[in-house]
Amino acid sequence: MEFAECFPIWPRLTPAEQKSLSGSVVCQTVKKGAILQNQNEECTGLLLVRSGQLRAYIVSDEGREITVYRLLDMDLCLFSASCMLRSVLFELTIEAEKDTEFWLIPAEVYKRLMEQSAPLANYTNEIMAARFSEVMWLMEQILWQSFDKRLAAFLLEEMSLEKTGALKTTHERIANHLGTAREVVTRMLRYFQSEGLVRLSRGMIEIADEAGVRALCGG
Amino acid sequence: MEFAECFPIWPRLTPAEQKSLSGSVVCQTVKKGAILQNQNEECTGLLLVRSGQLRAYIVSDEGREITVYRLLDMDLCLFSASCMLRSVLFELTIEAEKDTEFWLIPAEVYKRLMEQSAPLANYTNEIMAARFSEVMWLMEQILWQSFDKRLAAFLLEEMSLEKTGALKTTHERIANHLGTAREVVTRMLRYFQSEGLVRLSRGMIEIADEAGVRALCGG
Lengths: 219, 219
Fold this sequence. Notes:
The structure is a homodimer of 219-residue chains.
Chain A (H helix, E strand, L loop, with lengths): L2 H4 L8 H8 L3 E5 L4 E3 L8 E6 L2 E6 L5 E7 L4 E2 L15 E4 L3 E6 L1 H10 L1 H27 L2 H16 L3 E2 L3 H8 L3 H13 L3 E4 L2 E4 L2 H9 L1
Antiparallel strand pairs in A: 1-8, 2-7, 3-6, 3-8, 4-5, 4-7, 9-11, 10-11
């Protein structure tokens, strides 16, 4: 797959714009666990995921984390190039959750093209609106959803991403996704186990009753 | 003040675009308390505030509210025209907190102009990024700030908006701004009173020790 095939707005760019973009993108590969953009770092550039999985999260002063969104194949990460937009006043960290291959688009190239291309600026608008919607959804969850439902929804999402009901993860890691403390996750998982929804072992959570977990989310 | 003076991107539009915009905007006035956009309603259009104050908030299934951001003089509200952007999947309600005069820009006119005008699309991007930053700030507050600090910051913001230390408001109303229950607000205000920070009377909260309230926020 070439960059042009993965970049949805490609056919709506002029030949000169296409040339400028394809001449500046670089394909890179990172290992699972790599940090691609740190909250305090400079502007990495835009990331277009070719294959793999990235996690965008925020970190509190005390080091607590919460996952804001994830990026899968063909997703574009704008906020690793937040220097591009004056009004972006928050800091995300981007981490590879799996070995990931991506195209890096330099922020200054993208910004210059966006300033002259209405299609590219409108595409960027739609990407931002989509991320905005994810953040609003997350905020509603945090405010108004009980933790058992949030944890159940997270387990189902993980199952779907990993394509297995036996999740290799830690309580600490789940806490960092959901913006809570490890103890809160452990307590709720033990309750899930006592209800027959999951089976817990070291470094592993197995979904024992998928329908039950689904019912918990939906209820 | 004319529309052209309040719309910052005006000089960067073509004469044809300016004509199309000025021919379609309507100046409207609403009373304090009016709902300009309801979560379930159709696309009202973009609102450019000439004078007054609007509040954008979300409502839970159980009727709980939280203020997401406010719009003051010269602010543009995009999300009252969310039909304009396919990727906007959340519903805001917009309420006038003061008597408000605004220009209403029909969504379809704005959308058509934005599709052809890179300056307008980039301006829209910056507005969205600014609102996105406000929402991220709010999420961090909800996740990681204790309620006493959030309430203290809210009282100072109100003081600044109302230009008085004697706030005419109810505990219910504050709860709706901060996404919590009335009882939680009442309990914390009584604690503030016992610490000499505020004086409470019916329908009124008076800041008694502004420096103390500020210290609480900053700490």
